Amino acid sequence: MPRTARIVLPNYPHHVVQRGHNKQVVFAAANDFEHYLADLQELKTAFDVKVYAFCLMTNHVYLLLAPGDSASGLGQLMKSLAGRMTRRRNKLEGRSGTLWESRYKSSVVQTDTYLLACSRYIELNPMRAKIVQRAPDYPWSSLHLRFNESPVDNWLDESPALNELGTTPTERLARYASFMEQEIPSSELQLLRGALQRGQLTGNARFTDEVEEITGLRITQRTRGRPTK
Length: 229
What we know:
Elements: E1 14-19, H1 30-46, E2 49-56, E3 60-67, H2 72-93, E4 105-108, H3 111-123, H4 125-128, H5 142-148, H6 160-163, H7 169-181, H8 186-198, H9 205-215
Antiparallel strand pairs: 1-3, 1-4, 2-3
C-alpha cells in the first residue's frame, strides 16, 4: 500500500507520535528519559522547532511541535532525536539495529480550535494508562515541567493557545489546570487519535480549505467536529 504524503507546514503546530520498533521498550531507565529530553531541549534550538508539549512513555513518545520558517526542521529534529537514542541504547545493550518504527506519524493542528485539546491529550496519557493518579506527578511530561519547575528551568515554548488564557503566567497556568480537569468527550479523543494515526489534519473544514490553499493539494480525508470548550 503506498504511503500517504505527509503534510508539514512551517510555523504550524504538529501532533507527532513515534513508537518503538515492534513496540519494544525505548526508555528502560530514568537516564534514558533524561537523555532524550536533554536532546530535545538542545535540538529544538538547533533546528528552530518550538516544543509546546510532550509525553515520553516506555515505548513511544508524543510531541506537539511547531517548525519555524523551514518545514524541514521538523523532520531533521525527529531524525536526530531517533538517531541519538538508537545509538545510546545499542551501545548500552551491545547490539545493533533499529530502535524505532521507520516513520513517525504527524498531524498538522488547527491552532485556534484544537491546540489546547491536543496538548491536554498528550499530557493526560499517563493517567489514561493508569500509571499515575495525577497527571502532573508523571515526571516525563511537559505538564510536570509546567507545574513543578521554576520558570527559569521551564524550557517549553508557550503555545499561542496557552498564551490566550490570561495576561500573566500565573493566570494562564491556573486556567490551563482547570481545563485539564474537565471531562474529555470520547468524540474528542477519537478525533485526535484518528487524525494522528491516519496522518489527517486536526482541524475543521475551514482549516482544511486553508491548508489546501497553502499546499495546492486536494485533501480528500477531512476530520469532523470540534473539541468541547
